[in-house]
Write a structure and sequence with these properties.
heterodimer; A: 258 residues; alpha+beta; OB fold (Dihydrolipoamide Acetyltransferase, E2P); five-stranded antiparallel beta sheet; three-stranded antiparallel beta sheet; globular; B: 355 residues; 3 domains; five-stranded mixed barrel; five-stranded mixed β-barrel; 6 helices; 32% strand; disordered N terminus
Chain lengths: 258, 355
Amino acid sequence: MSESNSKSSSSSTDTENNDSGWHGRQVAKRAFAAEINDATHVFKQSDEERAPNFALLPSGEVANRYFLVGTITEVNDVGNEDEYLQARVVDPTGTMFVYAGQYQPQAAALLSSLEPPAYVAVTAKPSAFESDGETYVSLRPETTTRVDNETRDQWVSETIECTEARLDAFPDSDSEFAAMSREQYGDSLDLDNYREAVNDAREDLGMDMDHRSDRSNSETTTENQNDDVSVDEDGVTKEATVEEAEIAAAVANARFEE
Amino acid sequence: MLLQQPSSGHSHSNLIFYLVSFTQSNHSSQRQQSRHFQKMSSNTKSAELAVTVSDTDLSEAATGILEQFPDDLDGDLPSEKEIASRLEKMTNQYKVPLDEARRAAVSHYRDVFGLEYDDLEFPGQSAGDVTLASINQHEQWVDVTVKIVELWDPTHDSIDQVGLIGDESGRLKFTKWTKAELPALEEGSVYKLSNVITSEYQGRYSINLNSRSTIEPVDGDIDVRADIEDVQLSVPMVAIQSGSGLIKRCPDEDCTRVLQNGRCAEHGDVEGEFDLRIKAVFDDGETVQYAIFDREATEAIAGITLNEAIEQAMDALDTSVVEDALIDALVGRYYQVEGSIVGRYLLVNEAEQHG
């Protein structure tokens, strides 16, 4: 009891003296690889030097940070002199690229020590880089830990809900970011892709039986499209496979800008 | 109040922050109806407008008003009948709610006799010794024994002192009016405050010290209850912040600050005492919740004792190995967390990993 008292008085002082600080941390958004990799528009909301970067999710929200859980399938050192690790993190909808160097010692240590395949949880900041006219998303980990398949399934199920909530809200949304998404992604914006991603995730969890009846009534088209997506043995969709060397080179340059 | 309420708006998710209960129930809706004296805001009782007030109620109200005036007035007191007829006119003729009529009548007779509000008496009104958490009436005369938790800067000349008082049951704001000419209260000291009057504003209660109130210093200390809100979360831990793991605290009993490089901000270089804690960040995708695991909670969630942590650090010649091990073992997993919100932190009582 006296413990909590001393903490309460000190924390109350904190809040009074440092009011700006305690809303400071940005939330970690949940999104699948399919959407994270499409969130290529990264911007700052203010001109201040330390203003946070936000990636614009096509579904109309912004993310300064992601929390994700997936399968590490491969870790490569893509650095020139210093070690710079590129990890492929796969979720039911695609592959994300996580890069860790000397400024991410915790993540780098874990990535270099584990034997793929392995489930990992990653808290990471997004950035985007261009290579040959294409924009790619890379993730810079803050913390990376090895987790079990229950944690992974829980994340998938949580991310299904978060993604669906965003997609459901989008059509009637008059939010600044929904408008920004329509403007930024324009013709390439196809939210059905993320509905499909959600369905893939559902199937991954073995939840398809529960939802098949709903879908056959209302989303037959989506399901048909779903069948067309080709998936290789790792569960990686083909579209997500990109020229790795290219990315590695671009990222190795891009990281110095941060 | 120092409460931080977890934000709402998680309609889409079943992994949400939700309130289990308020341990402090000052927001009680069952405010007792005081017959003798009750100030109502002008529009709260509009339903009474249409109702005819009975003679019995009028006469009771009149007696109540009469009792508030001291016996030794310059001039004759109005009769009960006179007051009742005044109330009757306002209520049944002019459709004023009885409480408003009563307030107006008291105000009228105060003017007539040149009395200050503070000069009025409220026989039978003092609830005597009460705890702060039990206060749930507006304008009730009470006695409280409290510690002065914090003094704030008065915002107006009419306020002599203002701040936070606390007892074992909770905390309330207090205001000591300049006109009352009462002795100064000191932060951290304990007093018996007698004949103080409660007031309510937007569901929150406070205590007023006026010229009828008395202050009596009391020896000893009070273990003031923190403002606490119990919560249960089902969330992943997305980070462990630096300053977690094996730490050293200042050995001074009243200090217990965490040492930075062997130094206490208050007491300089000291021989610190080892302790375990986790400063964690939980995040459900909508809201960030900072959390603190004390030694007991850390030992429970990490399955490591303080002594084992000290051994780990000795072997590595580095205390940071403990923090690193906690990050690897705990971050990225989903938890059922139960604890109390104090300020911006969730003080963890119990946390259990899912699955």
